[in-house]
Structures are given as structure tokens and as C-alpha cells.
Amino acid sequence: MQRLKTVICCLQHFAKKGYVRNYLLNLKDKDGAVLKCSANTKLIFNKNNQPDRIIGSLNDISDYQKTLEALKLSEERYREIFENATEMVWTIDLEGNILSVNPASEKISWLQI
Fold it and tell me: Could you tell me the pTM of the whole model?
């Protein structure tokens, strides 16, 4: 039911604005594997300002979505290690400015950001 509401909302936007950008949907390939896709469409009008045709593209963003998920998990693991380490952990930039310190660093020394 929620999927139907999303499709109806997308079609209403298309009818009102004449385009849809980055509409995310799941499709299946010939082997039945799910593909994460992004659809973009635009309504083209003729000289009389009447709808004439629709142009669009459909992009497989499955790999992109997997990469985003892997990055999110990696950031979560890094953050957990950083926050829970009992040793001092800090980051600095190339000029030597302290960018971040973990809670243990603040307890052990004068470092604080």
C-alpha cells in the first residue's frame, strides 16, 4: 500500500511539474536479481504547448547503494573504535592542527576540542 502511495505521489509530481528526478525503485533482472534503480523523466511539449513525448533514463545504482552501505558501516565501526578506545587517539591536519580527540585523550591529558 505504501508503495502505491509513493507511485501516485510520483505521478502527481510528474503531472504538475513535468519531470521526475531520482525516483528510486527496485526492478528485477532476467535472472530475478533485484536491481536498485534511479529513474529520471521529463515531459516534452510541442509548439502548441501540448504534451508531445516523454524522455528519460533509468540507471542501475545497485553498486552505488552497496558502496554507500559499506561506507556507512565502516564509519560506524571507526566511530565505535574511536569513542571506546582506552588509549589516546587523535587526528591532526597537515598543518599540525588538532581536528579531533577521543574521550580517553581528554581524560588522560589536556587535549580537548
Answer: 0.62
> Quick one: how far is CA 13 from the chain centroid?
21
Instruction: Note down pLDDT in tens along the chain; length 113 residues.
Output: 666 777 677 777 777 888 889 988 888 889 999 999 998 999 888 999 888 898 999 999 999 999 999 999 999 999 999 999 999 898 999 999 989 889 888 777 665 55
Would you state the cell numbers that stand for residue 12, as one nine-digit string? 502527481
Angle at 66 between CA 62 and CA 72, to 5 degrees: 145
70 touches 78 (CB < 8 A): no
CATH architecture for the domain at 2-60: 2-Layer Sandwich (3.30)
Please state, in angstroms and rounded to a whole number, the distance separating the CA atoms of residues 13 and 18: 7
Distance CA 65, CA 24 (A): 11
Domain boundaries defined on the chain = 2-60, 66-108
Task: Find out whether 77 and 57 touch, Cβ atoms under 8 Å.
Answer: no
